[in-house]
Structure formats: structure tokens, C-alpha cells
Write a structure and sequence with these properties.
The chain is an alpha/beta fold. The chain is about 30% helix and about 25% strand. α7 (about 165-175) packs across α11. The longest helix has 15 residues, at about 335-350. The structure holds ligand PMT.
Length: about 350
């Protein structure tokens, strides 16, 4: 389902900039499930005809006369390019959140209204996503681990795995959108972390460093989602110089266990609501239930990493959620963002 948003446009900024941002929003509208409607003032309508605005947005322009009727349909938000005093009363009584771009926020606007200092498409889209999301994690801190860890052998070589960090970052993003303060502890991953005011990131490299960062922060969190693919083994000795190969000889690498962060957290009294993951190739259900019990999780999300489209690196995942009371929720194949939202819904029901 797509949600309409309305832009009140006037000629207070360079037209080129306005068109650039609108173009970016319209290009990504399907991805973000929004419809872009515009209400340009008369001066702008002289510069770009209604047909021009319609070609850009895919919708006919809303005239100022039609505004009250349009607002009755409850768009997700009204975006004001600058504050319009003459519309103050109409907007205040509409119940629709108002986002003011590059201006101060006047008092008396509906809940969710905010001032955005920059007229930037990404910032606008993030704010819209936040408005579309339930704020059921407001006031809560969610700790998330994401990505792989890297276990160094020597200054050149290391052991790691295929995790891109996409699933963990999707969970961190979704929690931030739903109002949480998010602590994202992540290994050396290829996925970019969004810049959000309520998301703090703690980059680490090894399982030991991830363990130490979690130990340092878990007491701040009411929820912990451990999605990282933590290396189970590391070389028992780090060689500080590059290991030289010897002609005709192989090499034996001695490995030792890394700390099991999830199991350690599960054993703590008063641990946060604990969500584990399980990346399995066989006997998915047996292994998942075993991890749920053994590591004292409140929920366990299993993915069968042999299934095409599921698990490491891709943009989709098929997850089955297990709870200690025997509840099993098999989600369909979803984008990692959608899967993250579903996981958070299950957490929200239980905290
Ligand atoms: O990052 P992506 O490319 O998007 O891929 C997503 C994913 C496949 C990595 C993710 O969906 C996933 O399954 N993450 C957990 C991977 C994993 O290590 O599973 P596991 O079955 O080996 O570990 C079980 C649980 O214990 C996990 O919550 C893990 O974070 C935790 N663990 C494991 C070992 C360890 N030393 N410490 C831990 O905390």
C-alpha cells in the first residue's frame, strides 16, 4: 500500500533545487511506498505548468482551494518548503503532521510535526518512514549485533564468513524507525550504516572485541538482537609477522573457541529481552530449538542458508521465529527490511 504525502511549494528556494529533491523522491517513491502530491503557489505555477508537475509526480496538482478537502483524506505528512503563516490554522487543525524544511517549527502543529534543517530527499524519506512506523519502541534501548567478525592469523590473513551485515542493519534501522535508541555493534561489514540521530554505532573486528563491546553496553538495553555471524573459532596464536610459506610444506592452523556472546548474555540474571539468530544448513528446526533453549533466548530467528534467497549477503531472507512457549511463526520470503519489521512486531508483543 502506498501512502500520500503533500508538498506545499513556494518560490522561496531555487527552482532547480526544489525539482531535484522532488525528482529524487519520485524516483524512490515505490521503494518507500509513497505517493508524492504537490501544491505549488501561483508564482511556481507560472514557471512550471500543472502538466509539468503532473509529469514529475504522476498526480494532478492540488490547488490551495482544494487543500482542506485534500487534508481530510489524511496524507502521511504535509511538507512545507518554508512556513506559511496564512495556512497555520488549517494545518494545525488537520491532525496531519507537518514537516517544515529549513525553517523553525511553529507551536501548535499536530503530533509528529518536525523541522528538518536540510531540504534533502534522504532525510525527508527517513522522517516519513518514521511517521509511518508505530513508535512502540520509544523510550527503549535496543542493542543489535551485525555482520561478520574477522579473526586475524597474521598481519595479512584472517578467518571470516559471508555475512554482509544487511540483516542486522535492517533490524537496527527498523528499531530506530520505531522510536528506539539503537546501539549497533558490528564487525567489518560491507553494508552501509544509515546516519540516524538515535543510532549509535560501535565498529569492532574480532569476536573478542564484539564480546567486550556487548559486555560494556548490554545493561543499557531492554532488548538485544544478536544477528552477527560471530566466528566460532580463532587462531590460538596471532603471528605478528607475515607467515612465510615453505616450499613443499603445508600448514596446520590451531584454532580455539571464541566466547559465545549470546550464551553468555542468556546466562546473565536480568538480561535484556534476548533474540538470537541461527544460520542452519540442515535440521533447521531441531538446531533452532536447541539454540533457543541452550542460549536462554526469548525468541530465536532461524534461517535456512541453503535456500535460494535466504541467509547471507542477499536482500531477502526467509525466517522462522521460535518462542519458548512453543509458538512457531514461519515468515514468507521477505526483503530483509520487511523481515526486520516482522521480527520487531513479535518483540513488541512480548516486552
Ligand atoms: O549479514 P547478512 O549477509 O544479511 O546475513 C544474515 C545472517 C545469515 C548472518 C543472519 O540472518 C544470521 O543468521 N545471523 C546469525 C549467524 C550465526 O552465526 O548463527 P549461529 O547459528 O552460528 O549462531 C547462533 C547465535 O549465536 C547467533 O545469534 C550468533 O550471533 C550467536 N553467537 C554465535 C557464536 C558466538 N561466538 N557468539 C554468538 O553470540
Amino acid at each position: 500500500m502506498t501512502t500520500p504525502v503533500l508538498f506545499l511549494l513556494n518560490h522561496t528556494r531555487p527552482l532547480q533545487k526544489t525539482l531535484g529533491v522532488l525528482g529524487d523522491l519520485c524516483r524512490d517513491r515505490d521503494l518507500w511506498s509513497i505517493q508524492v502530491w504537490v501544491c505549488p503557489d501561483e508564482e511556481l505555477l507560472r514557471l512550471v505548468t500543472p502538466a509539468g508537475w503532473e509529469a514529475l509526480t504522476g498526480h494532478s496538482v492540488v490547488s490551495e482551494r482544494e487543500l482542506p478537502k485534500y487534508l481530510e483524506q489524511k496524507p502521511l505528512a504535509v511538507l512545507c518548503q518554508s512556513w506559511r503563516k496564512e495556512l497555520a490554522s488549517l494545518l494545525a487543525h488537520s491532525g496531519v503532521p507537518v514537516l517544515i524544511l529549513g525553517d523553525e517549527l511553529p507551536p501548535g502543529l499536530p503530533p509528529g510535526s518536525a523541522a528538518l534543517p536540510e531540504f534533502d530527499a534522504m532525510e525527508i524519506l527517513q522522517r516519513l518512514e518514521q511517521l509511518a512506523s508505530p513508535q512502540d519502541f520509544a523510550g527503549k534501548t535496543v542493542l543489535v549485533t551485525a555482520g561478520p567478525t574477522a579473526e586475524d592469523i597474521d598481519p595479512v590473513r584472517f578467518i571470516t564468513n559471508r555475512s554482509s551485515g544487511k540483516m542486522g542493519v535492517a533490524i537496527a534501522w527498523a528499531a530506530a524507525m520505531r522510536g528506539a535508541r539503537v546501539l549497533l555493534i558490528h564487525g567489518p561489514m560491507t553494508t552501509e550504516v544509515p546516519d540516524l540521530p538515535n543510532l549509535e554505532r560501535f565498529p569492532v573486528r574480532s569476536a573478542q572485541q564484539m564480546h567486550d563491546a556487548v559486555r560494556q553496553h548490554w545493561q543499557e538495553a531492554q532488548v538485544a538482537v544478536l544477528c552477527a555471524a560471530v566466528a566460532d573459532f580463532r587462531p590460538d596464536y596471532y603471528v605478528p609477522q607475515k607467515i612465510k610459506k615453505i616450499e613443499g610444506e603445508g600448514m596446520v592452523l590451531h584454532l580455539e573457541r571464541t566466547p559465545d556472546i549470546l550464551a553468555e548474555l542468556g546466562a546473565m540474571p536480568n538480561h535484556p529481552f534476548l533474540v538470537g539468530f541461527a544460520a542452519e544448513t540442515d535440521d533447521v528446526e531441531i538446531n533452532a530449538l536447541n539454540k533457543l533453549r541452550r542460549k536462554h533466548c526469548d525468541l530465536l530467528c532461524a534461517n535456512d542458508i541453503r535456500k535460494p534467497g535466504s541467509g547471507f549477503a542477499g536482500d531477502t531472507n526467509q525466517i522462522t521465529i521460535y518462542a519458548p512457549d512453543g509458538t512457531v511463526l514461519a515468515l514468507p520470503m521477505l526483503s530483509k527490511q520487511a523481515a526486520a519489521y516482522r521480527i520487531l512486531e513479535e518483540i513488541a508483543k512480548r516486552i
